[in-house]
Amino acid sequence: MKSDPIHSSQGSHFGIPDQPRPIVMIISGPSGVGKDSAIDALETLGVQFHRVVTATTRPPRRNEVDGRDYHFVTLERFAQMIEQDELLEYATVYGDYKGVPKSEILEPLKRGEDVIMRVDVQGAATMVERLPGAITVFLTTATEEELVQRLRDRKTDSRDQIAIRVAHARKELEELPRFKYFVVNRHEKLQQTAKILWAIMTAEKARTDYKRVQVR
């Protein structure tokens, strides 16, 4: 009996394997542009993804939850992670160690889940080297004045500290051509920002030259 040509390719589309196409998205940009808020907005849209959690040796602050905000580990455990090559990269921040566990990338990808991480502009360059094929997005504000206002609204920095952050942001903008996409996170339009990020994720999954990210 001849097979039905209409139903002969079960589990595929005209010979294209019907398998998950997980992507890794690296969201970066100057301090104060709203990177975490943009990722939060993606979640409220119902987009499913794994949010990378960084390991740190500093103690948790008030309202921080282990495994959600950070993986809080001892200095001894962090040293073990370094020795056993468990970290993609690590650095010291104000006397404490901070690093990205490889498991935060590898395990979700094995499950077919998308992975999103937020890093500073300098850290993004390292992540691109360690995660070839990852999608890089530079998040910015519409104007410098808007960035200044966002930093003021946070009420965590002094006037001088804000001036330093803005000066640093100007330098970081010079790195924009190194990123694959840039998204303007407009004031009070987080949902629009999230929809643009979602569109980028969807488009990357549909690429004819799609390749799964490998961890180096």
**Any idea what the CATH superfamily of the largest domain is called?**
P-loop containing nucleotide triphosphate hydrolases
Instruction: Give the SSE string.
Output: EEEHEEEHEEHEHEHHEH
Note the beta-strand portion. Answer: 15-25%
Query: What low-confidence regions span 5 or more consecutive residues with pLDDT below 50?
Result: none
Task: Give the biggest beta sheet.
Answer: 5 strands, parallel
User: What strand order characterises the main sheet?
Assistant: 4-9-3-10-11
Distance between the termini: 50 Å
Helix content range: 25-40%
Which terms summarize this structure?
alpha/beta; Guanylate Kinase phosphate binding domain; 7 helices; 216 residues; Rossmann fold; 36% helix; 11 strands
Commentary on this structure:
The chain is α/β, with parallel strands linked by helices. It folds into two domains: 20-49 and 114-207, 3-Layer(aba) Sandwich (Rossmann fold), CATH 3.40.50.300; 53-112, Guanylate Kinase phosphate binding domain, CATH 3.30.63.10. It has seven helices and eleven strands. The protein has a five-stranded parallel sheet, sandwiched between helices. Strands 6-5-8-7 form a four-stranded mixed sheet, sandwiched between helices. Helix 1 (35-44) crosses helix 7 (190-205) and helix 5 packs across helix 6. The longest helix is centred in the last third of the chain and has 16 residues, at 190-205.
Task: Give me a quick take on this structure.
This protein is of the alpha/beta class and about 220 residues long. The protein has seven helices and eleven strands.
